[in-house]
TrEMBL record, chain A:
Keywords: Aminoacyl-tRNA synthetase, ATP-binding, Cytoplasm, Ligase, Magnesium, Metal-binding, Nucleotide-binding, Protein biosynthesis. One of its GO terms (molecular function) is phenylalanine-tRNA ligase activity. Tetramer of two alpha and two beta subunits. Its cofactor is Mg(2+). Its main location: cytoplasm. Residues 107-348 form the Aminoacyl-transfer RNA synthetases class-II family profile domain. It comes from Tropicimonas sediminicola. It catalyses: tRNA(Phe) + L-phenylalanine + ATP = L-phenylalanyl-tRNA(Phe) + AMP + diphosphate + H(+). GO terms for cellular component: cytoplasm. This is Phenylalanine--tRNA ligase alpha subunit.
From TrEMBL, chain B:
It comes from Tropicimonas sediminicola. Keywords: Aminoacyl-tRNA synthetase, ATP-binding, Cytoplasm, Ligase, Magnesium, Metal-binding, Nucleotide-binding, Protein biosynthesis, RNA-binding, tRNA-binding. CDD domains: PheRS_beta_core, tRNA_bind_bactPheRS. Tetramer of two alpha and two beta subunits. One of its GO terms (biological process) is phenylalanyl-tRNA aminoacylation. InterPro entries: aa-tRNA-synth_II/BPL/LPL, B3/B4_tRNA-bd, DNA-bd_dom_put_sf, Fdx_antiC-bd, Fdx_antiC-bd_sf, NA-bd_OB-fold, Phe-tRNA-ligase_IIc_bsu, Phe-tRNA-ligase_IIc_bsu_bact. Mg(2+) binds at residues 453, 459, 462-463. Its EC number is 6.1.1.20. GO terms for cellular component: phenylalanine-tRNA ligase complex. Belongs to the phenylalanyl-tRNA synthetase beta subunit family. Type 1 subfamily. Binds 2 magnesium ions per tetramer. This is Phenylalanine--tRNA ligase beta subunit. The lineage of its organism: Bacteria, Pseudomonadati, Pseudomonadota, Alphaproteobacteria, Rhodobacterales. Residues 704-801 form the FDX-ACB domain. GO terms for molecular function: ATP binding; magnesium ion binding; phenylalanine-tRNA ligase activity; tRNA binding.
Length: 356, 802
């Protein structure tokens, strides 16, 4: 039996492939294999002999089976290794192409502004871009003869022959949304109104369409000092650094008192850095809402007061992200969209941060 | 508004420096737009004395001079004919920039002899065109700054010119006196009263002035005096200098006087050559159609109702806007009628706008000049004319009266704190208003006649805060309206817009923001371009109409990018579309555009042209993201700018179109110069119904432990049978058991027809059965299969493919 064992163990060890291994299995432990035949002979043995030969044969059968299995596995390993060696890829080849979308800076910055003001309790209001002249001018204390009308470079909609209403305009600012919101919701109210506005002007630094965000807060005791705080909080959060503001007296028909607001900046090295340096950059117009404007919005100017301001969104984007040319915002040049665009899931939030 | 520092000092007694004045102006709301300070250019030039001047040995016209400067004796070579011993000169030492020759002086050799600087002419320092020789000063110490010497001896040569922006509410600051008043109120000096001793009347008026009854509301006051025997000619030097400094061309003394008071006191005046006026003057409204050649030599046709000044022969002057050429003053004028009138701002604004005349007079009258100053301004002008040009003045010729503008508002000193948030003592508030010309009676503040903008209590607050300086304002925190975690502020529509935008970017599209207006031809391709959406005054013909959709602009952007070498594009925009010219005729859409191929050529061979099913997959993704229901109808009636056979409209019911998709019509591509293929989709964001349920709960999830079974069926169908009908028919075979029906193969075209007959195609579907009670037996599956085949046959006429 030991002879048998040695013969098969050695043969299994030398088997070259699975076929040879299978032949050996049949030869040794197959139904008519040598070991199997020997096991059949057990019946003819005396019980004593059987007691010895039985376990020995079983052990031999097990050993051969294990050796077969081990050899089979090792042959498979060798074969797999062989296959893997052949399966070589140039992994420096590019992956399957996938398009990469981007978000326009206007959208991103609008969401940034919204996130900050939402945190201070301002809702987002919207209104039509083709406006009647009452909402765009009269309600904002700009009557028909007012020089500001001419200075605003207004786009007018053509009027059909026989339609004698004053022509509609493309809103020159987001301020008419103030009026619509006040009329709809009354006081108290806190809103921002981002959106497209239009002025008939096109040169190096002006485009006939641009974006503004208007802010309005009306309450019992909201003052210009609150406005200054709100703006400084906004700018600091937006630019990610403490930003000081400077208020200068000015005039807008819809606010009184009115102020131009500058933010601290430096022009060192030819680029503007917000929040440092000794220069001031004019960024927005603001003031306390004019009593006539409150009245136009159906709000009692004796009982209520508050502030309003307007900032250019495109301008904010240019300042924050170092985008040089306003006109390029609206040109849809793929190179520009890729360079200045934002990642799809890069949602600005107050808790996650607003600086990219 | 431009003025010089010395002009300002004519009205303001001040020790303040130029910088202090500039800062105060801006802070007061009179924003400084620019300042030209000649002294700044002359800062490095100093005074020297020529000790010795000898002829250059190698040049006849050059002299070698020894000049005493603050740095000792310097040798300077000079070519000026007047360079000689003993004169006091202006020296540019090495290192000094000389603006007139755009050169920085360095030590150099001229014909072999070293020169250590330069002696300058006026032209070399850009002071004047004078270049006959170097400057010879009558006084001055060696080493003294030339700028300082000029300030002391010829201040007009270093007079800074200041330009400020005037907001429409401040007509008073359109005169230098008004600017001075603001600065005085701020504490930068005291206002110098400039009063006038009227010229006594020498003779009675030879003609009359009348204002028609219907014109009194537009011209409450018209005053004038006739001056006989003046000698017109060039203005005195100081007046010429003053006008030139602010960019005005001196014309003749009489005209210059009117310009002077326009800028000095915001009092436009008009001078008529009295010899050219026929008969009496009458202020009245035009009947319409009268013509007049104005001082700008253009002929204007008056419209009915516009105010004019006429003599017996017809219109002489467009009231408050521009005088007529026929009666204008010339160098030869000897008898002059000086007019000072008050015109209603609103009527002037409308007339000026209608006639398209932008004159200094219109600019001022439409903002509102000081009505009370009308007769006083006249006396100032008459006094200046008679004093300089001689002659004698008539008595006052006047019609109407100074309009009463007296009004008063209560000064509530606490209002400054409650509205602005600044604490300013009562006395200071009152002092400020008084310095600005308000008259206080108790707590009532009477508004000065030159401040038409002050119309209420809030204006008093504004004046006080402005003069006190808003830079002193300290921020005060504004708490949230309600404490605790803020409620969401975005409306469902705003969230939807953001979801659509981010989803499209996630699908690989680049977001664009294109103009809301577009050219008519492009608008017409997309169902727009009509008169309702037309702009009256477009900036160019490229932007003449409000766009019916962002899609044409995206296609134009695609064409531009293709011209730059980018052929494959995925662009989108979420923005407004305008279907009419009324405010409510605007809706927010999300538009995607795919052009060219799915990507660049690649080793994996995945590149293929984009097609309708790319657009369909993307519109479905966007619709799903914004919460559109899964069960929708697809109609074939997409708008005409799509390929009629390769486009569809996704609808809820027969009327509500949620979006459209498909291949862009080849004619549209050709018109917009886009190289196809191009597919696009539009989602009408507001058309999708918002879910009614408020609950955040998702409902229970139904899972079955039983094995699902899939069976495939291939049908032979008429080629025009739509897959959705097949799928719906199959799904209807057993609504409880059939979980899903998917189309997985389409076999069509000539080969298919060869096999299955003309006009036939084959569609193969997988039907997935999900038992819920017990595992299905083969017989049960067989039975469902039979029903599927029956249903499909009934609905589409299709038969199982053999």
């Amino acid at each position: 039996m030991e002879e048998l064992r040695q013969k098969y163990i050695a043969a299994i060890a030398e088997a070259a492939d699975e076929g040879a291994l299978e032949a050996l299995r049949v030869q040794a432990v197959g139904k008519k294999g040598e070991v199997s035949l020997k096991m059949r002979e057990l019946g003819k043995m005396s019980p004593e002999e059987r007691q010895v030969a039985g376990p020995a044969l079983n052990a031999l059968k097990d050993e051969i089976n294990s050796a077969l299995a081990a050899k089979k596995a090792s042959l498979a390993d060798v074969a797999l290794e062989e296959r893997l060696r052949a399966e070589w890829l140039d992994v420096t080849l590019p992956g399957r192409p996938r398009r990469q979308g981007t978000i326009h800076p206007i959208s991103q910055v609008t969401e940034e502004v919204t996130a900050i003001f939402a945190d201070m309790g301002f809702a987002v209001a919207e209104g039509p871009q083709v406006e009647d002249d009452w909402h765009n001018f009269d309600a904002l204390n700009i009557p028909g003869h007012h020089p500001a009308r001419a200075e605003m470079d207004t786009f007018y909609m053509a009027r059909a022959e026989g339609d004698n209403r004053p022509p509609h305009v493309l809103r020159t600012h987001t301020s008419p949304v103030q009026i619509r919101s006040m009329m709809k919701h009354g006081a108290p109210i806190r809103i921002i109104c981002p959106g497209r506005v239009y002025r008939c002007d096109y040169d190096q630094t002006h485009t006939p369409m641009f974006h503004q965000v208007e802010g309005l807060a009306i309450g019992k005791d909201i003052s210009m000092a609150n406005l200054k705080w709100v703006l400084e909080e906004f700018f600091s959060a937006f630019f990610g650094t403490h930003v000081e503001t400077r208020f200068r007296a000015s005039h807008f028909p819809f606010t009184e008192p009115s102020a131009e607001v500058d933010i601290r900046c430096s022009w060192e090295g030819g680029t503007v850095k917000v929040g440092e340096g000794d220069d001031w950059l004019e960024v927005l117009g603001s003031g306390m809402v004019h009593p006539k404007v409150l009245t136009a919005g159906n709000i009692d100017p004796v009982a209520w007061q508050g502030f309003a301001f307007g900032i250019g969104i495109d301008r904010l984007a240019m300042l924050k992200y170092g985008i040089p040319d306003l006109r390029a915002f609206f040109d849809s040049d793929l190179r520009w969209l890729r360079h200045y665009g934002f990642a799809t899931l890069d949602m600005p939030t107050v808790h996650g941060g607003l600086n990219r | 508004m431009k003025f010089t520092l010395s002009w300002l000092k004519h009205h303001l007694d001040t020790q303040a420096t130029l910088d202090e004045i500039l800062d105060a102006l801006t802070d007061l709301g009179l924003e400084v737009e620019g300042v030209e300070n000649p002294a700044a250019k002359l800062g490095a030039f100093t005074i020297g004395k020529v000790l010795k001047a000898e002829k250059h040995p190698d040049a006849d016209k050059l002299r070698v001079c020894i000049v005493q400067t603050d740095e000792g004796e310097s040798q300077i070579i000079c070519g000026a004919p007047n360079a000689r011993e003993g004169i006091t000169v202006v020296v540019a030492k090495p290192g000094t920039y000389v603006p007139g020759i755009d050169t920085t002086i360095s030590v150099g050799k001229i014909r072999g002899i070293e020169s250590h600087g330069m002696m300058c002419s006026e032209r070399e320092m850009e002071m004047s065109d004078e270049h006959d020789g170097i400057i010879e000063l009558p006084s001055g110490e060696v080493g003294q700054s030339f700028a300082d010497w000029l300030a002391e001896n010829r201040p007009e040569k270093v007079d800074p010119v200041i330009e400020i922006a005037i907001t429409p509410n401040r007509p008073d600051a359109l005169g230098v006196e008004g600017v001075a008043r603001d600065l005085a109120a701020r504490g930068l000096g005291t206002l110098i009263p400039r009063e006038v001793e009227p010229v006594p009347a020498a003779f009675a008026a030879p003609f009359t002035v009348t204002i028609d009854e219907d014109t009194l509301d537009g011209c409450p006051l018209f005053a004038g005096r006739l001056i006989r025997g003046v000698k017109n000619g060039p203005s005195p030097q100081w007046l010429q200098d003053a006008l030139r400094a602010i960019g005005l061309r001196p014309i003749s003394f009489l005209v210059d006087v009117t310009n002077f008071f326009t800028y000095d006191r915001n009092r436009p005046l008009h001078v008529f050559d009295a010899d050219k006026v026929k008969g009496n003057l009458r202020v009245h409204r035009a009947r319409g159609g009268e013509t007049l050649v104005a001082l700008d030599d253009k002929e204007y046709t008056l419209q009915a109702g516009q105010m004019v000044i006429s003599d017996d022969e017809g219109p002489e002057s467009i009231a408050g806007i521009m005088g007529g050429a026929a009666t204008g003053c010339t160098e030869e004028t000897v008898n002059v009628f000086v007019e000072s009138a008050y015109w209603d701002p609103i009527q002037i604004a409308y007339t000026g706008r209608a006639l398209k005349i932008n004159s200094d007079a219109r600019y001022r009258f439409e903002r509102g000049v000081d009505p009370a100053f009308t007769p006083i301004g006249l006396e100032h002008a008459v006094r200046m004319i008679v004093d300089h040009a001689g002659g004698e003045a008539s008595e006052l010729i006047v019609a109407g009266a100074v309009p009463d503008t007296d009004r008063a508002y209560r000064l509530d000193t606490k209002r400054v704190e409650s509205l602005v948030g600044m604490e300013i003592p009562d006395a200071e508030q009152r002092a400020t208003l008084e310095a600005l010309g308000f008259r206080l009676e108790g707590d009532m503040a009477h508004v000065p006649s030159w401040r038409p903008d002050v119309q209420g209590e809030a204006d008093l607050v504004e004046e006080v805060a402005r003069v006190a300086s808003l830079t002193k304002l300290q921020g005060v925190p504004m708490s949230r309206a309600t404490p605790g975690v803020p409620e969401p502020v975005l409306t469902p529509m705003q969230r939807r817009e953001s979801m659509a935008r981010r989803t499209m970017a996630a699908l690989g599209y680049n977001e664009c923001v294109t103009y809301s207006f577009i050219d008519q031809a492009a608008a017409e391709l997309f169902g727009g371009g009509g008169d309702a959406t037309k702009l009256e005054n477009p900036i160019s013909s490229e932007m003449s109409h409000m766009r019916p959709s962002p899609l044409p602009a995206l296609l134009q952007a695609a064409a531009r990018n293709q011209a730059r070498g980018f052929a494959d594009l995925a662009l989108f925009e979420v923005g407004p579309a305008f279907h009419g010219g009324e405010p409510e005729e605007q809706n927010q859409v999300a538009v995607g555009l795919l052009v060219g191929h799915t990507g660049p050529r690649d080793v994996h061979g995945t590149r293929r042209g984009v097609d309708t099913f790319d657009a369909k997959a993307d519109i479905e993704a966007v619709l799903a993201a914004v919460g559109a229901p899964a069960k929708v109808q697809i109609r074939r009636d997409a708008p005409g700018w799509f390929h009629p056979g390769r486009s569809g409209a996704i609808c809820l019911g027969p009327k509500n179109v949620l979006g459209v998709f498909g291949e862009v019509h080849p004619k549209v591509l050709a018109a917009l110069d886009v190289k196809g293929p191009a597919v696009a989709f539009t989602v009408d964001l507001a058309a999708i119904p918002f879910p009614k349920a408020k609950s955040a709960s998702r409902g229970a999830m139904e899972l079955s432990d039983l094995q699902a079974v899939e069976r495939d069926f291939a049908f032979v169908l008429d080629a025009n049978v739509e897959a959705l009908d097949l799928v719906n028919a199959a799904a209807g075979a057993d609504k409880a058991l059939i979980e899903e029906v998917r189309v997985f193969d389409e076999f069509h075209g000539p080969k298919a027809e060869a096999q299955m007959g003309e006009g036939k195609k084959s569609l193969a579907i997988t039907v997935r059965l999900q038992p819920k009670v017990k595992t299905l037996t083969e017989e049960e599956i067989e039975a469902v299969g039979k029903k599927v085949i029956e249903k499909v046959a009934k609905a589409t006429g299709g038969t199982l493919r053999g």
